[in-house]
Amino acid sequence: DGTRLRAALQSLSATAPETGTNDDAQTRRDVEERRGMSSLARLMTRAALQREESRGGHYRRDFPETDDLR
Question: Which terminus of the chain has fewer Cβ atoms in its 10 Å neighbourhood, N or C?
Fold first, then answer.
């Protein structure tokens, strides 16, 4: 529901991926990968929050119906 999605978004936004202290290429790749995954998680949560219907794998308890008129 919207309350949980907002809480998840707040938690994701407050948690920044580690920057790493080692300068080797693998560490830099790992850091960039974590940043990308963190960014994707925030984007997916925002998109889920904006969708006010249930459709396919996206189900919201506060909006259980599918809205085909949109």
Answer: C
Rounded CA separation 61/8 (Å): 16
Cβ pair 34, 17 in contact under 8 A: yes
> Under a CB-based contact definition with an 8 Å cutoff, are residues 65 and 54 in contact?
yes
- Residues in the chain, overall count: 70
CB atoms within 10 A of CB 15: 10
From the list 9, 10, 5, the residue with the least C-alpha distance to 63 is 5
| Residue recorded with tokens 């830099």 | 28
Residue 45 buriedness (CB in 10 A; 0-12 / 13-18 / 19+):
buried
